[in-house]
Amino acid sequence: MKKRIYALALTSAFATPAMAGDNVTIYGIFDIAMAYGKADDATFSGFMRDGGLAGNRLGFKGAEDLGNGLSAVFTLEQGYLPGTGGPHRDGRNFSRQSWLGLKGGFGFVGLGYQYAPGYLIPGNFQVMGGSAGFAPRSTLAFAGGYTISPGSGARFDNAIRYASPKFGGVELQGIYAFSAVQSDAGGAVDRSDDDRIGLGMSFDGGPFKAGVVYHNIGSGSDADDTKEVFVGASYDLGVIKLLGSWSRKDADGSTAADNTLLSFGAVMPVGQDGSAHLGYAKLNPRGDDNNGKSITLGYIQGISKRTKVYAAINRLSYDDGVTYAGAPGAAVSVAAAGESANTVLAGIFHSF
């Protein structure tokens, strides 16, 4: 059960009291696993994986009813590493989300540090819930430099975000992140050189679901922006759910960094609250002999409404001409060019 405390208790030091009924919800995820990996030419010992299914977080969210169907809403969310007790990344106080907005019949508008469409949509079309370390597409998306992935690259600073109400199963969303550059620096740098734009559309048609995402990432200089596109779909047949996606990245004028990313998977329900997952992804940059491939077989078992146990094995392989950095906590970065790496893990997930 989520714990709720009245906002008045949190803000009693301030002059303006909270209205009765306004509240703050404390929520979070605790997800930790043990893993072991082996590459072709090296064996490395087991390690603790922070977030095998989802990133660990502790958050505060609240809403105030402003009348006429309008509410003021906010979220402050901090990531953490349960294996060490350390912060999620970057030394931020709230490393996952920090925003304030308005919600009503028009949809939602928020200001602050927010998820882009590339975080919110792709995980719906991947096995293992889009796990950053073990879903095949997520692993290779990190290697390929994508921001369209359920990871830190799909959170935008200094952003204004809009999400529409659903109509006919369709939801639209867009985000614009202002540049961190505050002046033109004598004309050498334009304020808009590292602006970021994200657009997304999702469709829920019952058993059939689909999503489209576009990101434009400013280069921070006069170089061309990086453009990314994602298209994903799934169909639930009851006895099995099929998932697939296609992604393309054109990177700031450098064809060497351009690539496509294909992902396919299937999820099969097993017994009560269990599911078996099989997924495959292939990263195909321009050029020869430089592909990366990832395959995952996993199982998730719910043991209560808020607790799951899971296990998975992932194999990642490279062509002879390339090796890629991998997602944090995965075995990906161990493999050298032309080699493969295998990782197994087992963990527990709890939400509150």
How does CATH name the architecture?
Answer: Beta Barrel
Number of domains: 1
The number of helices is 3
Shape: globular
Report the radius of gyration as a whole number of Å. Answer: 21 Å
Helix and strand pattern: EHEEEEEEEHHEEEEEEEEEEE
The strand count comes to 19
Please list the strands of the largest sheet in the order they lie side by side. Answer: 2-4-5-7-8-9-10-11-12-13-14-15-16-17-18-19
CATH-assigned homologous superfamily:
Porin
Strand coverage percent: over 45%
Name the helicity range. Answer: under 10%
Q: Gap between N and C termini, in Å?
A: 6 Å
**CATH classification class:** Mainly Beta
Please state the average pLDDT score. Answer: 83
Structural class: mainly beta
**Unreliable spans:** 1-21
The largest sheet is:
16 strands, antiparallel, barrel
CATH topology: the name is Porin
Describe this structure in words.
This protein has 352 residues and is mainly beta. The protein has a single domain (48-351), classed as Porin. It is 5% helix and 53% strand. It has helices at 7-10, 117-120, 136-143; strands spanning 3-6, 23-39, 43-50, 57-67, 70-81, 86-87, 97-104, 107-115, 155-163, 170-177, 196-205, 208-217, 226-236, 241-250, 259-270, 274-285, 292-302, 307-318, 340-351. Strands 2-4-5-7-8-9-10-11-12-13-14-15-16-17-18-19 form a 16-stranded antiparallel β-barrel. The protein is globular. The N and C termini lie close together (6 Å).
